[in-house]
Design a protein that fits this description.
This protein is about 75% helix and about 0% strand. It contains 20 helices and no strands. Helix 1 packs parallel to helix 8.
């Protein structure tokens, strides 16, 4: 499909250092908010279940499953958002599309914090929550493709892996901020206060964060790659055949499968798993999650930078292999009451760090798979589809499987199996992609 753009080519189509840094911040901030919110929803899953999915007579496990079903539903709308906003971003530009996305995300998340509960309005409460989760899914689907396009298209030569890694790094920061907010509230509030109104605070904090993100994106320039490839062209813009793009999306999703499944297993689902399966307290579960996220955050930027030197393939294969081999032994360490606390902490930190080896080079790897004219759509869809299937369903699958089988090792099997499949897809990567210019 072709489109004809009109109007003059805007000035300053080459990336200068100041513009590159501004693009890095503007692209990162939306990811931070998105994953802060998704982390908060996961950390407060048991509280949300009690408020929105537990009518009289319903069990706690049933409510938790319904909460994770709502969690998964938002993920299944992410591919829709990726296609919708990706189409806009590849036609009208990265900047205006990312502005629209941050407005939608901020509004939906803030409204969750103000939503009446089941006790107040009955069955309408879970339906309204689900609607807001759908809107979040749409906006999150449009966020990744635009943010990574901006970061990698503005990246200086030889630093695309490092710039793209900031997307994943702000994921870690967002999850850590969500865990920190939850831990702080659990410390300063009583259990009654936390369950009564305290859980709303992290969602309402999205409003000021979103306004800051909006201000940053209003100051963002259009990327040089989009400006030179699309804006001002008198001839129709050539786009690759649809079949070629579909194959690239499927392959990209396969390469991300391990990152998606292992990331959500160890970084988001872990608190509820520890509480419901190992009888950990809310505070203990949050500390465990913070340690895993610290390991994740610590390895992301170095992994992205190293991938600029030795290639995406080597670094991502190392991460997938480590998770596939070590997921079960690490989880068994955490499960064993006789394991020293420091060893459990090291195991969780190591699990997060292994996921970070895949997450660091991942955004740049995806950007290199698609030409500029379909990059926003292509990499956004690959990421959204992988997350919809293997991240959004992680809590639902693990909770249900543990409940039905009584096997506490399910999270490790889930993460290891996904990484084993990703290994095969990652082997198809060329070793020199990091040296090639973006198409």
């Amino acid at each position: 499909m072709t489109t004809r753009a009109t109007g003059p080519v805007p000035p300053r189509v080459t990336a200068r250092p100041a513009r590159s840094r501004r693009a890095l911040v503007a692209g990162s901030v939306g990811n931070f908010i998105e994953w802060y919110e998704f982390g908060v929803y996961g950390y407060f899953a048991t509280v949300i279940a009690a408020h929105f999915f537990t009518p009289e007579g319903g069990s706690e496990v049933e409510a938790l499953v319904k909460t994770y079903a709502s969690f998964a539903l938002a993920f299944f709308f992410r591919p829709v958002g990726a296609a919708l906003f990706g189409r806009l971003g590849d036609r009208i530009g990265r900047r205006p599309t990312l502005i629209l996305v941050i407005c939608l995300m901020t509004a939906a998340t803030t409204l969750i914090g103000a939503l009446p509960t089941y006790a107040s309005i009955g069955a309408a409460a879970p339906w309204l929550l689900t609607l807001l989760r759908i809107l979040q899914g749409l906006s999150a689907g449009g966020e990744f493709g635009g943010a990574v396009s901006v970061m990698t298209e503005f990246a200086p030569p030889g630093r695309r892996g490092l710039y793209g890694a900031w997307q994943s790094f702000t994921v870690a920061l967002g999850l850590l901020a969500g865990a920190g907010a939850a831990a702080l509230l659990a410390t300063v509030l009583t259990t009654a206060q936390l369950n009564g109104w305290g859980w709303r605070v992290p969602f309402l904090l999205t409003l000021p964060l979103g306004l800051v993100a909006l201000w940053l994106r209003l100051r963002l320039d259009e990327t040089p790659a989009f400006a030179s490839a699309v804006v001002g062209r008198s001839a129709p813009v050539r786009r690759p055949p649809a079949g070629e793009t579909v194959r690239a999306v499927a392959l990209g999703a396969g390469r991300l499968m391990g990152w998606s499944a292992a990331g959500y297993t160890f970084l988001v689902v872990l608190p509820s798993y520890l509480q419901s399966t190992l009888n950990a307290t809310f505070q203990q579960a949050l500390v465990a999650t913070v340690l895993a996220n610290l390991g994740f955050a610590a390895s992301i930027l170095p992994a992205g930078a190293v991938s600029d030197r030795i290639g995406r393939r080597t670094v991502m294969l190392a991460g997938a292999l480590l998770v596939a081999v070590l997921a079960l032994p690490l989880l068994n360490l955490v499960q064993d009451p006789g394991t020293p606390t420091y060893a459990k902490g090291a195991a969780l930190f190591g699990a997060g760090a292994a996921v970070g080896l895949m997450a660091g080079p991942g955004p740049a790897m995806l950007a290199e798979m698609f030409p500029t004219t379909v990059r926003y759509t292509g990499l956004g869809l690959a990421y959204a589809l992988s997350n919809a299937v293997f991240s959004g369903c992680a809590g639902l699958i693990i909770t249900q499987a543990v409940e039905r089988t009584g096997n506490a090792d399910i999270p490790a099997y889930y993460a290891a199996a996904a990484c084993a499949v990703s290994l095969a897809a990652l082997l198809t990567l060329r070793g020199d992609d990091h040296h090639r210019a973006l198409r």
